[in-house]
Design a protein that fits this description.
heterodimer, A: about 170 residues, alpha+beta, Alpha-Beta Plaits, B: about 550 residues, three-stranded antiparallel sheet
């Protein structure tokens, strides 16, 4: 008699296996899938790279070409979504995409290239053009002179004026 | 009288420091009196040994340190007994003769920090592979976390095979056990006479990583990957330890969310185990049904946290995602359904006399042995000892829920099955209570101040037993020391008792009955798999497997 109970239980449950992959599966709302960097919004600040636990996002300055390269490697990604949480421009979003298997390794990368600008004192590339545009929008006009100066040169010049003031 | 005063009175001159921080009594004694102090304490107070921690304190005080951590059973208090030793002659008295449960922890410290323990009965390698050089101790601060090139050293691994018995190797890769570990069963006919365990094949160096490369808020994401099943409890435990060390007040709502997810995790972990147990008994229908019911919980977790395994939710100071009204409603519906289905399934499972016959009276763990060897979690409670971190040292929102702790006195495999079934049903009731009265408010603490050199200690009740994280905060947003002790680490040594005199056919279910999770246990070291010597060792092992 006891065994019949198991049969009844199985009958009631029916077939629970889903016919995936023949029928696509829709992940629930709030699912954290493959991250996507919006290349039109990204300003290249690098917050995402510094917060990423597995170092899936790397920011490299291509000094000779004058570009900043933001590279997201899905192979390392743990889909925690810290990057999208921290991004000041809301440029990163976690999509619902989860079928990531691919025959080509290139599919595992997303690269964003941003044009950089030179420091007007030392002439080195130091930040992205888009970052400067953003600062121009946000900062008052009297500070515009200092925007195009790299942090090191800024430090030097404030050190100089500081000592000058003391005298 | 407090423990500190008591110790000061008796060992006055030998006590270097005795302070109390929150619920931790911290006592530092001279290393000559370490053993006596612990002998006295364990005799006078009802202490439960948790773990031992070695710290390389050379950059700060030019000493190597050992901390022994105990918890008090009757009240919510921890006792940490520390002592320091000269790094040029690192010798400390072993406490294993007094507290047998400290056996593995001391061997681990010897491996990783090079502190030798005088009077230890079996000071062999535990964590490091046999071909690791004698003089490199990975958790010392001067060893880089990404150390790769290691000198070739040949160490012979002594085989402790009793001549008259047959050796039956189980592992390192075995279809029965889903993770790499190695059991050497000594059998006499059909009876298991003795067992040796050799594990730690998949060390990942997580502790070292947490101390060198990751920042405070990155560690939870690694911590939850210590275990493939009970990850949330690890990240919670880590966050709680740091929160305690830095005195961060966690919003109430966050604590509720943590507790709810911890219980969901316990449910899916226990259901997984029940399934595996059925599978090992040859009752695959049970396996299928248990996992079918488990799937509802996994889907619920996915809906609530964005990930099937509740990954990526904890941060220091709270949680990252709120449970909205929809989520609460969905959770209540799912739990109701699961409760019904589970009850029906359990009724079927327990009414089968084949299942009962295989479980009843096999793999018995007597109460005394369980306590002495430091078993934890369901394994301990199935042997008649009522000790549950959720009740004895309440954390998160467990104070707000009323729940009973199932205890069985038989100590056999059936008791361990029944405990897990009862706990699963109890978890449903806890979640329902917490969902009912979850308070409104923030979910993440703001304005977190970072302090250096603070000690934090936290325990959580993982599905497999108690789980402990010990942290010493450091500078530059990086931990100075992070020690993890997963429950299986404490439960494995008791297998020796359980397997003795048990028929060979019962060995698999007995090994599985502690719900072993080898990944949790193997978490400590930087390993180089590619060096030539490793190949020699595994070849030897392979040869032995062919016997």
């Amino acid at each position: 008699m006891k065994r019949i109970k198991i049969l009844l239980m199985a009958k009631k449950a029916g077939i629970v296996t889903e016919p995936y992959p023949y029928k696509p599966v829709e992940p629930p709302e709030g699912f954290r899938g493959k991250p996507y960097i919006d290349p039109d919004k990204c300003v290249g600040c690098g917050s995402c790279a510094s917060v990423c636990p597995p170092n899936a996002i790397q920011v490299v300055d291509l000094i000779d070409k004058g570009y900043r390269r933001i590279e997201l490697f899905i192979g390392r990604c743990i889909f925690c979504g810290r990057c999208s949480e921290i991004c000041p421009e809301d440029a990163i979003e976690l999509t619902k995409e989860f079928e990531l298997a691919s025959k080509s390794q290139n599919d595992m990368y997303q690269v964003v290239l941003l044009k950089m600008v030179k420091c007007k004192i030392c002439g080195r590339y130091f930040t992205t053009q888009r970052n400067i545009e953003k600062l121009l929008k946000e900062l008052p006009k009297d500070l515009w002179d200092t925007i195009l100066v790299c942090p090191e040169c800024k430090e030097k010049s404030t050190a100089y004026t500081g000592s000058y003031a003391k005298r | 009288m407090t423990v500190n005063n008591d110790i000061l009175k008796i060992f006055g001159d030998y006590v270097i420091k005795a302070i109390t921080i929150d619920n931790i009594d911290y006592i530092e004694v001279s290393k000559d009196k370490l053993k006596e102090t612990i002998e006295y304490l364990t005799k006078e107070y009802n202490l439960h040994y948790i773990t031992s921690i070695g710290v390389d304190d050379r950059p700060l005080t030019r000493t190597l340190r050992v901390y022994h951590v105990f918890s008090r059973v009757v009240e919510d208090k921890f006792i940490v007994i520390g002592c320091s030793t000269d790094p040029h002659y690192p010798h400390v008295d072993s406490i294993t003769p007094v507290v047998p449960a400290a056996n593995w922890a001391e061997r681990e410290i010897r491996d990783l920090l090079g502190i030798k323990f005088r009077g230890h009965p079996n000071l062999e390698r535990l964590v490091l592979p046999d071909d690791w050089p004698e003089d490199i101790h990975p958790l010392r601060k001067d060893v880089p976390y990404n150390l790769r090139s290691v000198v070739e050293v040949k160490v012979t691994y002594p085989l402790k095979r009793p001549r008259e018995h047959t050796v039956l190797p189980v592992g390192p890769y075995h279809p029965l056990l889903h993770e790499p570990e190695y059991f050497e069963l000594y059998v006499d006919g059909e009876k298991v006479v003795d067992v040796e365990y050799r594990g730690f094949h998949v060390h990942r160096g997580i502790e070292k990583l947490g101390e060198s490369r990751l920042t405070y808020n990155q560690v939870p994401f690694v911590a939850e990957r210590i275990c493939g099943i009970c990850g949330f409890t690890h990240s919670t435990c880590y966050c709680q330890a740091v929160e305690k060390a830095m005195k961060i007040h966690v919003p109430e709502r966050a604590e509720y969310i943590r507790s709810i997810l911890l219980e969901l995790e316990r449910m899916h972990s226990h259901l997984l185990w029940i399934g595996v147990a059925c599978h090992l008994l040859g009752f695959d229908t049970g396996f299928m049904h248990s996992w079918r019911i488990r799937e509802h919980i996994m889907r619920l977790c996915e809906r609530l946290t964005g990930n099937r395994k509740t990954y990526g939710l904890n941060l220091i100071g709270g949680v990252r995602r709120d449970i909205n009204k929809d989520g609460v409603k969905k959770a209540i519906n799912v739990l109701k359904m699961v409760k019904e289905e589970l009850k029906r399934f359990i009724e079927c499972l327990l009414s089968l006399k084949e299942v009962k016959a295989r479980l009843e009276g096999t793999g018995i763990l007597p109460k005394n042995d369980a306590w002495k060897l430091g078993a934890v979690g369901p394994t301990l409670r199935a042997s008649g000892i009522k000790y549950d971190v959720r009740a004895n040292h309440p954390y998160a929102a467990y104070k707000e829920a009323s729940f009973s702790i199932p205890v069985y006195t038989e100590g056999d495999n059936l008791a361990r099955l029944l405990i897990r079934i009862d706990e699963t049903l109890e978890s449903i009731s806890i979640i329902e209570q917490l969902l009912d009265k979850i308070p409104k408010g923030d979910i993440l603490a703001k304005d977190i101040e970072v302090h250096e050199g603070k000690i934090g200690l936290s325990m959580t009740e993982a599905p497999r037993g108690e789980n402990i994280h010990f942290v010493i905060t450091g500078k530059d947003n990086i931990l100075y020391r992070w020690k993890v002790r997963a429950p299986t680490y404490a439960n494995l040594p008791v297998l020796k008792v359980m397997l003795k005199e048990c028929p060979l056919s019962d060995a698999p279910i007995t090994i599985a009955s502690i719900d072993p999770c080898f990944s949790c246990t193997d978490r400590v070291i930087v390993i180089d798999i590619k060096n030539g010597v490793m190949r020699v060792t595994s070849f030897k092992r392979l040869l032995r497997c062919k016997i």
